[in-house]
Amino acid sequence: MRRFLHLFLLAGLLIALAHHVPYSHPSPSRALAHAEPAYQTADLLYNEARTVHLGNLARRANGIPPLRWNRQLTAAARWFAWDSTENRPIGYCGHQDTNGNWPVYRARAFGYLGFAGAENAFCGYVPPEGAIEG
To answer: CA–CA separation, 56 vs 73, rounded Å?
Structure first.
């Protein structure tokens, strides 16, 4: 938790605005050694929701259909934010987790069955408005 609360990592949140795909639990053989961080605060949840809302406002302004929040991709993004801040040296900025996996693998490991070929990550705290602008 040491840096997690000060980091707004957008990893997966923009792809978490994904078209609806039915939820599927990951099989144990494909799953990461993951557990959703238990310290998801009200402020972090609000920032996630605000990012989805602002992202869809920006999409509407550009004539692009809205996307939906997704449980699996959000769980993958939260886990990656936790992994990046708890298991890496200060200053790490990248897309590969400490297990050597990339975003598409994490999406599948958390049960997402749709297309998940991109990830936007901000390294350091960025408020939702700044994340969408970026």
So the answer is: 17
Identify the bridge partners of residue 68 per DSSP, sorted by sequence position: 18
In this predicted structure, the answer to whether residue 28 has a pLDDT above a threshold of 80 is no
Identify whether the C-beta of residue 108 lies closer than 8 Å to the C-beta of residue 24: no
Based on its alpha-carbon atoms, the radius of gyration of the chain, rounded to whole angstroms, reads: 14
Q: pLDDT at position 30, please?
A: 42
Residue 40 token pair: 């998801």
Confidence bin at 12 (pLDDT 50/70/90): very low
DSSP reduced 3-state for 88: coil
* Contact of 28 with 123, CB cutoff 8 Å: no
Q: Which two tokens stand for residue 76?
A: 């993958």
- The contacts of residue 91 (CB under 8 Å, 6+ apart) are none
